[in-house]
């Protein structure tokens, strides 16, 4: 065989081998292989008694693969940005030691679901107040077209209250609502601090009306912006009118509620783009100039 065709054949074989290996190791398109319902639940715990809870895990079937699930129990905390952190937090993380789970591993076919049952055995001396735990669910779907195993992770959060001497209360501060905007969207916000030893929910409502008339242009009254504030934590929350027009004068009313405390802020909000403000200022300047020029001209004629 001549040398050149032989070399070409070797190169072609190497290229084909490289493409095959690359295709096998290339990650497949990521598709969720696990889902949880509900994403969180509230529980009331009684010291010295057992309480049972459930949630459902399922394979949505989008990956068309069987999923192997592993469930672990971890304490969690939410910071001021609502990010979940799987770390211990002083007296609020003891619940992770009180839980037994019937089964920690599941195999789910596409579109199959399983109910997860767990039991909380609360000690007699359990501290009153909040306890927070997460059931972290990891799935390990195996792709038939790839040598890479993709791992998906989701969590079911449990906000528990241990009965006893709980303290509730907090402070609403720093209500913000701009009266003048050069552009952008009307946004109202406030900071809420939870001084209690139990999580609590805060509610934020924004209503926008025209300067004249009572027809609501925007309101989230039916679905308020609600956030959970952890014990001893503070959080700032804002509510935005996404369809704010570029020009206009409106009446805005902002209401914040937390643990029986209610604060309200109402303002007239003017939205005027910078270019329009410059034009208005120029027109006013021209009018003033003409008035002053007219007065000076009349004085000169009299003299």
Your description of this structure?
With 303 residues, the protein is of the alpha+beta class. It folds into three domains: 35-162, Sandwich (Immunoglobulin-like); 170-272, Sandwich (Immunoglobulin-like), CATH 2.60.40; 275-303. 17% of the residues lie in helices and 44% in strands. The strands form five sheets. Strands 13, 15, 16, 17, 19 and 20 form a six-stranded mixed β-sheet that branches. Strands 2-11-10-4-8 form a five-stranded mixed β-sheet, with no helix packed on it. A hairpin with a 5-residue loop joins strand 5 (77-78) and strand 6. The radius of gyration is 31 Å and the shape is elongated. It starts with a helix and ends with a helix. Residues 16-30 have low confidence and may be disordered.
Give short descriptive properties of this protein:
Immunoglobulin-like, 303 residues, alpha+beta, five-stranded mixed sheet, 17% helix, 3 domains, six-stranded mixed sheet
Summarize, please.
With 303 residues, the chain is an alpha+beta fold. The protein has helices at 3-25, 274-302; strands spanning 35-37, 40-45, 50-58, 67-75, 77-78, 84-85, 99-101, 105-108, 113-121, 129-139, 152-162, 170-177, 180-181, 187-194, 200-210, 218-219, 225-229, 234-240, 248-258, 261-271. The chain contains 2 helices and 20 strands.
The helix count comes to: 2
In terms of per-residue confidence, which ranges show pLDDT below 50 for 5 or more consecutive residues?
A: 16-30
- Can you give the helix content as a percent range? 10-25%
CATH class of the largest domain: Mainly Beta
Q: Quote the distance from N terminus to C terminus.
A: 117 Å
CATH superfamily of the largest domain: Immunoglobulins
């Amino acid at each position: 065989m001549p040398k050149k065709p032989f070399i070409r054949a070797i190169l072609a074989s190497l290229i084909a081998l490289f493409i095959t290996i690359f295709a096998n190791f290339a990650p497949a398109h990521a598709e969720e292989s696990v889902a949880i319902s509900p994403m969180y639940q509230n529980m009331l715990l009684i010291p010295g008694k057992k309480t049972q809870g459930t949630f459902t895990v399922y394979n949505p079937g989008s990956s068309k693969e069987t999923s192997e699930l592993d469930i672990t129990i971890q304490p969690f905390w939410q910071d001021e940005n609502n990010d979940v952190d799987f770390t211990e937090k002083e007296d609020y993380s003891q619940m992770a030691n009180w839980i037994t789970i019937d089964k920690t591993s599941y195999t789910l076919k596409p579109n199959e679901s399983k109910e997860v049952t767990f039991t909380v055995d609360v000690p007699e001396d359990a501290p009153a107040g909040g306890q927070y735990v997460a059931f972290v669910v990891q799935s390990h779907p195996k792709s038939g077209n790839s040598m890479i195993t993709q791992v998906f992770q989701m969590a079911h959060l449990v906000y528990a209250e241990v009965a006893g001497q709980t303290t509730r209360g907090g402070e609403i501060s720093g209500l913000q609502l701009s009266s003048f905007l050069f552009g952008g969207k009307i946004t109202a916000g406030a900071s809420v601090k939870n001084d209690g030893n139990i999580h609590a929910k805060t509610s934020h409502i924004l209503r926008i009306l025209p300067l004249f008339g009572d027809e609501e242009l925007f309101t989230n009254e039916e679905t308020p912006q609600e956030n959970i504030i952890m014990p001893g934590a503070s959080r700032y929350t804002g509510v935005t009118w996404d369809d704010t027009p570029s020009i206009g004068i409106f009446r805005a009313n902002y209401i914040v509620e937390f643990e029986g405390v209610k604060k309200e802020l109402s303002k007239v909000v003017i939205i005027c783009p910078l270019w329009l403000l410059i034009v208005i200022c120029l027109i006013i300047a021209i009018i003033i100039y003409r008035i002053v020029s007219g007065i000076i001209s009349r004085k000169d004629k009299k003299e």
